[in-house]
Amino acid sequence: MAISIGSGGDDEVNASINTTPLVDVMLVLLIIFLITIPVVTQTVPVKLPQESNIARQTRPENIEIAVDAEGQVFWNAQAVQGPDDLLDRLKAASVKQPQPEVHIRGDQKARYEFIGRVVFAAQRAAISKISFVTQPAAKG
């Protein structure tokens, strides 16, 4: 409410509303919205992949590579001697027509580094299709 300072004996009542606090609150809210909206919205529009569980087609030409918890690599249930042996086998498989798929089965306790080495070797050998084999989630 406003105070009227003046001379004379007529005291007038000022019936206007002081809107300064309302404007202050509105400006603070506007600043908050201006700061938070860019965080909420994505700056780069991307289309995210959809999850799909497809039953695996088991064919004789497919290559099963398993990695156990200690990092040992197995090619169709036979131990691989080292990274060079794995790369040589993948290079030999990559020139076949049609190119076989590589299915990687990694132990859940295996370090990502071990599985990453297999993926890297497949990339170096120019394998075009790599799949990761997982257990389906338990229902219930």
UniProtKB/TrEMBL annotation:
Keywords: Cell membrane, Membrane, Protein transport, Transmembrane, Transmembrane helix, Transport
Compartments, record wording: Cell membrane
GO molecular function terms noted in the UniProt entry: transmembrane transporter activity
Domain of life of the organism encoding this protein: Bacteria
Gene3D superfamilies: 3.30.420.270
InterPro entries found in the cross-reference section: ExbD
Membrane topology: Single-pass membrane protein; Single-pass type II membrane protein
One Pfam family of this chain: ExbD
Residue ranges that the Swiss-Prot or TrEMBL entry lists as coiled coil: none
Biological process according to GO: protein transport
Transmembrane segments: 25-46
Gene Ontology CC, one term: plasma membrane
Major localization listed first in the record, in broad terms: membrane
Family from the record: Belongs to the ExbD/TolR family.
Protein name: Biopolymer transporter ExbD
Organism: Aquabacterium soli
